[in-house]
Design brief:
9 strands; alpha/beta; globular; 48% helix
């Protein structure tokens, strides 16, 4: 008899957003292959039906890292397959913005998942760290290039080479966190940010996020191509007409 696998993602869907809660409390939400596979399936859904994604943890932990019991047995072939790397790239490239709501520790692969989000909201208990070198590996799922982009190279080197843990105040000062709120207000703050995004044009938001990811050499040509599509849209006309009508009042 095949035993059912435990539910490790708690997913709530609505018209304009999806909330996913990482739920492996017995191992502090360590990211294992099952979680990776389930998140890939969620990404496939959001690529077809773009919506804002909110990712959060449970029981005062965002994600403590990759599952070390699995990681210990992975081989060179597993490393080259980029099991976590490919997932985090896919999350970062989702059409609509991704919000990480982080209470407690985001370490190793958990931190790299948070770095892949477009926005990060934390609590006073939020902690970021990349302890990979202490385990004989590198932070190969995005931290080595995303973290320097997010906080600057000097601070990133302290985290990646010296094992520095950033607390909530340090992460906010470095703009790694957008906001810090109390734990009981975390999801509400994430939803408030999602509300602000959802009030904007979905098509323009998708184009803006895609353009922000492009290398410098593709600008301004790609910007103008996107603008040409949007200029001819009914949504643009309706939004600008409504704006002008409001100004008349």
């Amino acid at each position: 008899m095949t035993m059912e696998q435990p539910e490790i993602l708690v997913v709530t869907r609505s018209a304009d957003r999806v909330v996913v809660q990482l739920h492996r409390p017995e191992v502090r939400n360590a990211i294992n292959r099952q979680m990776v596979d389930e998140l890939h399936r969620l990404c496939a859904e959001l690529e077809v039906q773009p919506r804002i994604l909110i990712i959060t943890g449970s029981d005062g932990v965002f994600a403590s890292g990759a599952d070390i019991a699995e990681l210990r047995d992975r081989t060179a072939a597993d490393a080259l397959a980029g099991i976590n790397t490919m997932l985090f790239l896919r999350i970062a490239e989702l059409p609509m913005p991704v919000i990480a709501a982080i209470d407690g520790h985001a370490l190793g692969a958990g931190a790299e998942l948070a770095y892949a989000a477009d926005f990060r909201i934390g609590t006073p208990r939020t902690r970021f760290g990349n302890p990979e070198t202490g385990l004989g590996i590198v932070a190969a799922a995005g931290a080595l290039w995303r973290l320097p982009q997010l906080v600057g190279e000097p601070l990133a080197k302290e985290v990646l080479l010296a094992g520095r843990i950033l607390d909530a105040d340090e992460a906010l000062a470095a703009r790694l966190l957008t906001r810090v709120v109390e734990p009981g207000e975390l999801l509400a703050a994430a939803h408030a940010l999602a509300d602000e995004i959802a009030a904007k044009s979905t098509a323009a938001t998708i184009q803006t996020k895609a353009l922000l990811r492009m290398e410098r050499g593709r600008h301004p040509g790609a910007d103008l191509d996107a603008q040409a599509v949007l200029f001819d849209s009914d949504d643009k006309r309706a939004r600008m007409t409504a704006f002008l009508e409001r100004k008349k009042r």
